[in-house]
Structures are given as structure tokens and as C-alpha cells.
Amino acid sequence: MQGFITTTREEPEKQDVNKRLQTFEEIYQFFNNRVVARQAERCVQCGDPFCTSIGCPLNNYIPQWLEAIAERDLEKAFLLANETSPFPEILGRICPHNRVCEGACTLDDGYGAISIGAIEASITELGFKAGYQIPFPGPETDKKVAVVGSGPAGMSCAHFLLRAGIAVDMFERSDQPGGLLTYGIPGFKLNKSTVQRRFQIMEKAGLTLHLNTGIGTDQPLEELVAKYDAVFLGLGCTNGKRAGIPNEDHPQVFLAMEFLTNVQRRLTGLSWMERFGVRGRRVVVVGGGDTAMDCVRTAVREGAESVVCLYRRDAANMPGSAKEFHNAAEEGVNFMFTEAPKSIVLDDDGNLVGIDCVRTRLGDPDATGRQRIEEIEGSDHCIQADIVIMALGFDHEPYNFLDALGVERERWGNIRTAPDSSTSHPKIFAGGDCHRGADLAVTAAAEGRRAALTIISKLLD
Length: 461
Ligand SMILES: Cc1cc2nc3c(=O)[nH]c(=O)nc-3n(C[C@H](O)[C@H](O)[C@H](O)COP(=O)(O)OP(=O)(O)OC[C@H]3O[C@@H](n4cnc5c(N)ncnc54)[C@H](O)[C@@H]3O)c2cc1C
Ligand code: SF4
Known about the structure:
Helices cover 33% and strands 16% of the residues. With 461 residues, it is α/β, with parallel strands linked by helices. The structure holds flavin-adenine dinucleotide and iron/sulfur cluster (SF4).
């Protein structure tokens, strides 16, 4: 180990910009056996590895799988990567690495962090290719758990229950499984076949998937509570926020998820709506997070005439992944920083023709330490647009069907849980965005795993 002195950090090869804009395929390749080992050799094997203890919400065995792959033991690395994570090949691709494990890597300070995410995804892909399998015992207890929602939280909970030999029935209101992995995150970050492969693995291990089955609509939650030994809720949090400006209910103003889901449905060959098309249009996306980056990059691939990203703060304060911002800029997105939207502009015929904005500057920090946004007087101006997409974060759905069972919510509507993921109902557990608010796939996975471990200890002890 200690190869960081002689070997620099590498990223996997990225597809040429002009080629990648023609498709929705993933833009990154994987490391081959030789490069993945060489990159893993850079790890200094810290006594207290912050990448694991502070950086990774799943506390993955990062130094251990780095050591295994540096020693050319792919099978050991594959099994270690799959020990704590329910889908390392997915999180290795989509985690905002600079904000989690890689941001906590000792080498990040001056040498370039270990490429943890790319190595994790490469180890898992190379392992699948070599035919290695994740050990599942098959249903070997008489216990059965219902998981509601098939996003990362539900997938993770189901994965760890199946690993403990507990059968799982998963209920999903949508026609495709995967939650935001399927209908939110675009294919250029995560191929949909990668998500489908995980479901195939879990179905082989004893998962029964019930699609088009909304709990609280198609089937009452009370029925699940009566029939199963425990119920996990991984309901997500996808009610798009609006900016609260005049005319934003105009049909040429879309919410991020309306736009992204519609494109994904068309690409999958499912029913979709022409009215969310952006070909040949001038598109302005409002927001600076990962969802905004996904919208701008999707609009470019969809053939928009121009794509502008409007953000109230500066580049340094963007909340999303630095990598995705750079990819968007490379793909031709025009970023306009320190701009706050004031109103949607319509012409005399009622068509959307622009968005009125005011320039901002960052002032003193508020109580949370974040700099306040101050509007600059007299700086009003209009940015021309045909379509405006709001990518401003998400609120909880009301989850009214939980009331009859007394499942308590917090002030903002999120499901209240104890540290072990139990709710105020003794048979119901919850985790992921419906508990935390819109966050990350890896934190949803960590909460799904925590709930599974609690359920396992309650049912099998
Ligand atoms: C556009 C976009 C891009 C993102 N990019 C990234 C990224 O790059 N990296 C990252 O880490 N995170 C990213 N995220 C965040 C991440 O996707 C979420 O934090 C994560 O998916 C939350 O997982 P979850 O299982 O809690 O919820 P979800 O993924 O939302 O899944 C919830 C599921 O529950 C189903 N459901 C809800 N209610 C019911 C019901 N009553 N009955 C049956 N089923 C129900 C829903 O249909 C859905 O399938 C992104 C989010 C968005 C919107
Ligand atoms: S799951 Fe995410 S945070 Fe954890 S090691 Fe993998 S890429 Fe890093």
C-alpha cells in the first residue's frame, strides 16, 4: 500500500461529450482489474479510517475491500463490498463522493482522495462478470415482512431481511420498481438495467414484488399489519416544491419530477406525455442541487435550443455533487449564479416568454452558518425562456392512510421514528426520505438496513 506517492488519483474514463449527448447511456466506464488494483494500492490504511467512520453513512468496509483488491483478491473484495451495502454497484456510481467517503479520505488533503466510489462500482461489476454471487440462504424462517415502497430504503430493508432468511413481500404503487433510482435519476448516471439486476437477485432470493399496488389506496395498511409479522415503510418524499412566484402554475412551467419521469417513461417504452417535450425550446431550470443538474443534462439530451441553470447562490455554495456540476457545464449548460426568480413572464396571448429575476449577493451568515441572500436593488431583468423547470426540493406527501394506525409524524410531515427505526405502532418501521426528508440514496439505504436489523432482532430473538 502507500502507492499514493507514486500513483495519482484516477477517474474512470468518461465518454466524449459529443457522443454522450446522443444517448442516455452512462457516461463513465469502469476500471479494469489492473487499474482498480493500482488505484486501491494508493490507500494508506489509516488506523482510524474516516472514510468509513465519518464519510460513509453505511460505514462500509472500505479499507478492507481496498486491501483485498490491491492484493488481487476480487472475490474477497466483492463479498466485502456486498456485506454492508445492499447495492454497492449503484452507490459507487451515484453517491456524491466528494461530500461523503472521498471527502473524508485522509489523502483528499493534498494528494487526491482514493477514488472510492469508482473502485466500489468497478469491484462489483467485475465480480458480477466473474460470476460471483451474494450469499442468500433462501426463506428459512416462518416469518414474513411487508415492505412498502421499492426505492433504496425499501430495497435495502428487503435485502438484509432476505440475507437473514426472512421472506419479503414488497408493495409498490408504480408500474416499475426502484423508486427514484428508476424514475428520478437519469440513465446517464445510472443505467436502468443495473437496478433491474438487483431486483432479479432479490426475487431469486425470496422477494415477491407487487407492482401497481398503492398501500392506502389499492390495499389498506391495516391488512398488511394483520397479515405480516412486521411492515417497513419506505414511502419517499417527492412532492415538488414551487418558488411561490406569480404565474408559476402556467402549463409551460414543469416540476422536475414531471419532466424527468416523463422522459424516463418514453425511454423505457411506457406511456408518456408530449406536453413535457423541450425539443427546440429555450429551457430555464431553477435550482442548484443534483435534481437541477439531472434536469439540465436531460434537457440538453432532449434537444433543447438552450439550457440555463438559475441559482440564487454562487458556484461554491451549490448543494449538489461537484462532479455533476462539471459534467453539466461540459455538456453546454449555461450557469447563471446569484439570480433569484421573481415571476414568470407571459405575452399577451398567455404564452410563457421568460422569467423575471433579480441579482443577489451573499451577506452575513444566519443562525445555521449559511450566508444570507440579499437582493440587489434595481437589478431586475428578464431571462428569455419557453419552458421553466422548478427543481427546488421536495415536500412530504400527507401519508393520511397512516392516521388510522396512529403512526405519528413530525412537524414537517415526516414519519417519526426512534433511533432503531420503529414508529409509534409496534409492528411498523420506517426509513429513507419519508423519515429524513429528501436526501440521498445512501442514507435511505442505511436507514433501510437499520430497520431490517431491528426487525430481525425482534422476530428472531
Ligand atoms: C432527480 C433526482 C436525482 C437524484 N440523484 C441522486 C444522486 O445522484 N445520488 C443520490 O445519492 N441521491 C440522489 N437523489 C436522492 C435519492 O434518489 C433519494 O434520496 C432516494 O431515492 C430515497 O429513497 P427512498 O426509498 O426513501 O424513496 P424513493 O426512492 O422515493 O422510493 C419510494 C417508493 O415508494 C413508493 N410509494 C410511495 N407511497 C407508496 C404507497 N402508499 N404504496 C406503495 N408504494 C408507495 C414510491 O412509488 C417509490 O417507488 C436524487 C433524487 C432525485 C429526485
Ligand atoms: S456507499 Fe457511497 S459513501 Fe459509502 S463507500 Fe460507497 S460511494 Fe462512498
